Amino acid sequence: MDPVIVLVLSLSCLLLLSLWRQSSERRKLPPGPTPLPIIGNFLQIDVKNIQQSFTNFSKAYGPVFTLYFGTQPTVVLHGYEAVKEALIDHGEEFAGRGRLPAVDKLLNGLGIVFSNGNMWKDMRRFSLMTLRNLGMGKRTIEDRVQEEAQCLVEELRKTNGSPCDPTFILGCAPCNVVCSIVFQNRFDYKDQEFLNLMEKLDENTKILGSPWLQVCNTFPALLDYCPGSHNTFFKNYSYMKSYFSKKIKEHGESLDVTNPRDFIDYYLIKRRQESCSQQLKYTIENLIVIVTDLFGAGIESTSTTLRYALLLLLKHPHVTAKVQEEIDRVVGRHCSPCMQDRSQMPYTDAMVHEVQRFIDLLPNSIPHAVTCDIKFRNYLIPKGTTIVTSLSSVLHDSKEFPNPEMFDPGHFLDGNGNFKKSDYFMPFSTGKRSCAGEGLARMELFLFLTTILQNFKLKSLVHPKDIDTTPVVNGFASVPLPFQLCFIPA
């Protein structure tokens, strides 16, 4: 038979098989737009404004709908009620991690962020317990953050009030906090090892959110057979793995089981305590992945939020003035801000919350997956199905936050000016898969911002009305446009 005919027949069979499979699945899953063979619903989604596409789909199909990215179905949860019902009311069933082949290829199911099952439960429990232990030690995590806040101020003083892009400096501070927790020591902002590590982390974060990686995650075969930025992603991970391995080896040689210094020490002590059968979990390979998770999750999100906060404070000088008045009244000019101050600073607390709500840093969080077949709102979602939670639809809910597209700390204040909590505040997601480092991130945001505003007046290079706060959205995160400002000593 003619090879061309064989090829056409084979492709036709694959096409028909794909159509039959999708049709069979779709009868059980929540409704959604009809997917095309192979590429799914890609052409029906505005990649420049995915959230608006999701909003449009929710109006047509309801708050729970199905999209196909390639041949794989993804169930999207839109709005507070659907997200809460899944992640809190059915937390165990929705606690799986959705597959990201580019990441899975490197991590092999280890660590915290991208692991599943008992591995995820054990490593998350250990990490939370260790962070608590470090918080209660001789040198608490708050001490480390306060120290870094002062180092940050000294770096900003070196700008001498000249225009500067704050991106690099604001990345160094949270990176050093993680270094202090994981390695015990912080680094000078000009240390070459520190700069190399930051460069690899930053580059990998950008690659992970790039359109090409989204395509590779949809069609994993591309990872093995095509050139592209994914190869740089893998190369950078190899560098970080080698760097972390060296640090872990140094810790092992100087370990004192009676006096753990940092996260690595706690892990190595736990590894020694476990029985032989359990040591399969507490491997050095697993520790490397956990450390990678701590750096990956603990730096970019905090530094981006800090950078966005400064841009919003430049845009809204009346908010900045109110915050600085509260800092002067509660903290003064000569004491370092501490977490105890927060309860007496409702407007500043509201401002930090509003920054996180407004910028909507991770519009769809990291994909979840269902851990078993589950009947959800009269639909059958098979085990392993990817779940996307639209955090945007919760953080920008107009019933909870009037005029949600406006930046207004009043969204988190009651009629008497007291801080007001909201169940809709989910920048770290919610439920069992919420960010394990949420407490640390919230501490850093409060202490870094209050310390900066205690020591400097922020000066914009353009009129506030000309400042553009529109985010640049990559595959995962919303980031601000590049900007410059002047830090004028107060």
UniProtKB/TrEMBL annotation:
Protein name as annotated: unspecific monooxygenase
User: What organism does the UniProt record list as the source?
Assistant: Peromyscus maniculatus bairdii (Prairie deer mouse)
Where does this one sit in the cell? Endoplasmic reticulum membrane; Microsome membrane
Q: Which UniProt keywords apply?
A: Endoplasmic reticulum, Heme, Iron, Membrane, Metal-binding, Microsome, Monooxygenase, Oxidoreductase, Signal
Q: Please state the span of the N-terminal signal peptide per the UniProt entry.
A: 1-25
Looking up InterPro entries in the UniProt record yields: Cyt_P450, Cyt_P450_CS, Cyt_P450_E_grp-I, Cyt_P450_sf, Cytochrome_P450_fam2
Show the GO cellular component annotation of the record: endoplasmic reticulum membrane
Q: Which GO terms describe its biological process?
A: organic acid metabolic process; xenobiotic metabolic process
Q: Which GO terms describe its molecular function?
A: heme binding; iron ion binding; oxidoreductase activity, acting on paired donors, with incorporation or reduction of molecular oxygen, reduced flavin or flavoprotein as one donor, and incorporation of one atom of oxygen
Give the residues annotated as coiled coil. Answer: none
The record's listing under PROSITE patterns reads:
CYTOCHROME_P450
Any idea which positions bind heme? C435
Query: So which cofactors does this thing need?
Result: heme
- State the top-level EC class: oxidoreductase
CDD domains referenced in this protein's UniProt entry, alphabetically: CYP2C-like (cd20665)
Q: Give the family from UniProt.
A: Belongs to the cytochrome P450 family.
**Which gene does this sequence derive from?**
LOC102926095
Q: Does the keyword Repressor apply?
A: no
Q: How does it sit in the membrane?
A: Peripheral membrane protein
Which E.C. number(s) belong to this protein? Answer: 1.14.14.1
Q: What is its main location?
A: endoplasmic reticulum
